[in-house]
Design goal:
The protein is α/β, with parallel strands linked by helices. It has helices at 50-55, 131-137, 168-176, 191-200, 213-253, 306-324, 329-343, 437-450, 455-470, and strands at residues 47-48, 98-102, 124-128, 144-148, 181-186, 204-207, 265-271, 282-288, 294-301, 351-358, 364-370, 376-378, 385-386, 407-410, 415-420, 478-485. The strands form three sheets. The chain has a six-stranded parallel sheet.
Length: 487
Amino acid sequence: MPVPVPRQRAIPAVECGQAPAASPDSGPSKEQAPPGTHPAENPTTRRENPTEKREKPTDTSPDTSTGTDSRTGTGTDGRTGTDAGTGRTQSAAPTNLTVLLIEDDPAGSPIVPDLLDQAGKPIRVRTARNLTEAGRLLTDDVHCILLDLALSTPAHGTGDAEDHDELAVLRHVLELAPRHAVLALTSSSDAERGAEAVAVGAQDYLFRDELDGRLLSRAIRYAVERKRSDSAERRLAEGRLRAQENRRLERGLLPTPLLAGSPLRFAARYRPGRSRALLGGDFYDVVRTPDGTVHAMIGDVCGHGPDEAALGVELRIAWRALTLAGLCGDELLGTLQQVLEHERSDDEIFATLCAVDISPDGRRAGLCLAGHPSPLLSRPGEPARLLPYDNNGPALGLLPGARWPRMQVELGAEWSLMLYTDGLIEGHVGEGRERLGQDGMVEMVRRQLAEGLAGEELLRATVNEVRELNGGELADDVAVVLLDRTA
């Protein structure tokens, strides 16, 4: 037959410092306590004394240890154990609630009645006489703090306003335990003080002289849940604020074209490959120099992470500064390569780039390609076509001392020039592995131009159709720039 399991001994009142020591042979046992026994001797509510904890450090957090409860066979951390004598596995039980009571009654008269949690298990109560003891007993397994607002305020001797603040002790506790729920205890004749405690930061207040076990147990559970809810809401708000700040930062890093005084029209479309990002490794810019020349550029740093996005921003800003300083063509790209070599985090990182400078009259352009796809030119009465790319130079960062020849291109009186990154042409077509490619993109744009699309509408339709053909979001960043000149 199963061996009887002895009941766990409750902590005697003498160990809690609340009753005089008795001889081993005198007085009834805990299980036989006579009526009128002091509540501190009742085994239902388990009290922990700071003195006992200092003498027995291994018992400071009984509910977080991995030992086995002799009454239930369940580990005190709530994990499944084995019933002594039967070998049968017991189901896991929830961890007991632990409450830290901060009150300085020198007689040891308890103001907290017997407490049971929602499952009927005793709520552990630790008692601290002052904030120093509270700091030692405030471990991670404490769920709620009961603070008697009648607790004497720590003496500072400074004579400042804090010495006369009736809620100074509460403020100290909130600073000491910012992640714990706090219940304030006050007298029924001082409800205003309790309301002020809630305004300061307590989860709720209760009248000390009207407490009963059921009311207090429920208030503790509600306070713990409210604190968890408030903490989760605060973390969510902080996360949203960080996300908004990141988005504002990324928007600020996107370029603002400098085309004042130019007859050219500008449109752009940008979609980063990173989830929930505004900025990727693709970059572009357009500026007009004092001589009337319009300079346009689009580039792509290999990779899709935040480091590549940051490098793309650096290259764009460097390109704008160098362009406004009067550099162009091979000289400009050579200097950009030096910037890339100094700023990249890995020697294998490179960037492709397409740079175009359009003459003040808008009829001619110079083209430099550094491992980048050639722009698409469309003119009235002619099918759209790719500009020559025979003299395409290497990508930036691949070959030291490389050169990038500048090609002269005739544009005509009326035209549209589309610059793009390879994210636009490397998407798949349908469920197969076939990619759209430059030929597919040219045919797509020709059809859309024939439908009368132009400017922003043309770019939007192009990017959307590429995504549809790919069957969803594109894996790579996509940037498209369109410059138009009308007669």
